[in-house]
Design goal:
Strand order of the largest sheet: 3-4-2-1-5-12-11-6-7-10-8-9
Order of helices and strands: EHEHEHEHEHHEEHHEHEHEHEEH
CATH class of the largest domain: Alpha Beta
Shape: globular
Helix content: 25-40%
CATH architecture of the largest domain: 3-Layer(aba) Sandwich
CATH superfamily of the largest domain: Isopropylmalate Dehydrogenase
Structural class: alpha/beta
Length: 340
């Protein structure tokens, strides 16, 4: 079975959020644009109830095997059952649903690693609710890496946010801002640069990626006057990356990296912390942005937004970021030829 014949594995995310809404709307969009076939790993009853709340008439087809999804995708939303314990109420998250949320992610990874599905696309989860249910990972990115890691080869996941005109990578991800200076090392920055460059080559077809690396401090430290991290940590990583033949510049002042002409000079920006990377991306492409995890043995994408409990079941949620995540997952898997 070739890649185009395999569906994407789509997780339900938090069922009380907008995951069911945007999944239904993304499936409906197949009649207007080229949506790659996907199979939802979730509870069909939740999807049916949400469709009713949204006034949508969406036929649901429960499958025994994910491989059946492409054959039914045109006329029904394929669902590989993952049952949720307890009642699901739109906008009201419950810890009772969290075992199913985890199972959906785990089964999506399993199906993709077995070659049944071509990539993993994850709907948004509510980390605070998962933490209350004993979830031990900062977020999706770290959990996926743990699922895919082996004792022989621990993985280093890298989060890339992709928009129409910008790709950004934060070196540190879901950590308090005050911890960032302590966590930054030249080795961590160099590893992030290398994984980013390899991801751009493998999944985006950029033979010689150009990377721009930000500083940590205002004005990139002003030659040490506003901090020495640029001199002692970031610049050595940039030098080491260049010594390995990578096309890397920096450290640059972050406040001048993201205007239109600056963006033309690089293929991706490597930033030091979460908001330094995500604020410009979400400002430029809030609805079109896609979250990509590099460094995994499979393709993974996700909408670049949260669960939006206040919008669940209201009909106001936009499926655009999920649609872009589905399309990008298919494109990346095609580009890689099924090999991460």
């Amino acid at each position: 079975m070739g890649l185009p014949d395999r569906p994407l594995a789509l997780t339900l995310g938090d069922p009380a959020g907008i995951g069911p809404d945007i999944t239904l709307l993304a499936w409906e969009a197949r009649l207007r644009e080229a949506i790659p076939p996907f199979v939802l790993l979730g509870d069909a009853d939740v999807v049916v109830a949400r469709a009713r709340a949204l006034g949508l008439e969406v036929p649901i087809c429960e499958l025994e095997r994910a491989s059946e999804a492409p054959a039914v995708f045109r006329h029904a939303l394929p669902v590989l059952p993952v049952r949720i314990g307890g009642q699901v109420v739109a906008g009201h998250p419950s810890q009772a649903a969290m075992p199913a949320v985890k199972e959906s992610i785990e089964r999506a990874v399993e199906q993709t690693r077995q070659g049944v599905t071509r990539a993993v696309v994850t709907n948004p989860i509510a980390k605070a609710v998962l933490y209350g249910a004993g979830f031990a990972f900062p977020g999706h990115t770290e959990y996926l890496a743990a699922l895919a890691s082996t004792t022989a080869k621990p993985l280093h996941p890298v989060m890339m946010l992709v928009g129409p005109d910008l790709k950004v990578v934060p070196v540190t991800i879901h950590v308090p801002l005050k911890e960032v200076p302590r966590l930054l090392t030249s080795e961590l920055i160099l590893t992030t640069i290398e994984i980013t460059a390899e991801g751009l080559r493998r999944y985006f077809g950029i033979e010689r990626p150009r990377l721009a690396v930000s500083g940590l401090n205002p004005h990139a430290g002003e030659d040490g006057g506003l901090g020495r991290e640029e001199i002692e940590i970031i610049a050595p990583a940039v030098t080491a990356a260049r010594a390995k033949g990578l096309e890397v510049t920096g450290p640059h002042p972050a406040d001048t990296m993201f205007h239109a002409s600056a963006r033309e000079s690089y293929d991706a920006a490597v930033c030091m912390y979460h908001d330094q990377a995500l604020v410009p991306l979400k400002t430029l492409a809030f609805e079109e942005g896609v979250n990509v995890t590099l460094g995994l043995p499979f393709v993974r994408t996700s909408p670049d937004h949260g669960t939006a409990f206040n919008l669940a079941g209201t009909g106001k949620a936009s499926p655009r970021s999920l649609i872009e995540a589905l399309k990008l997952a298919a494109t990346m898997s095609d580009q890689a030829g099924g090999k991460a």
